[in-house]
Amino acid sequence: MPRAIFLPAFAMVALTIVVWLRMYITRVAQMKRERIHPQSVATSAQAAARLTDSRAADNFRNLFELPVLFYLALVVAAVAGLANTTTLALAWLFVLLRVVHSAIHCGYNKVMHRFQAYLAGGVVLWLLWAWLGYLLFLR
Gene3D superfamilies attached here (predicted)? Predict the structure, then answer.
């Protein structure tokens, strides 16, 4: 089971790569279609003014917010030998909810659906940390 704790991390990396590719394809296509010179979108303010579809870019940034704590939780679990069934279940549930969040964000982007997936993922992440804290300090 010790190595299994890293599988959810690889799944999150795969999700990040997929969103990055979508961002790249979307941006390059719009820049070619509208003949936008790369230098004219050199800053985030310039990009926001010129590039109309920021869904994938916004989601890509999201994948470096809460998931940072997720990756750290997996390292803590691995180092402390806490990669048990509950830890893995919470980790995979977080990944699933992040996939749902990304699909909504990069797809039809209904804010309340996206928020619900984000909130559920956040709650699972806090539960994962609470579980690790329990195992480390209270058990």
Answer: Membrane associated eicosanoid/glutathione metabolism-like domain (1.20.120.550)
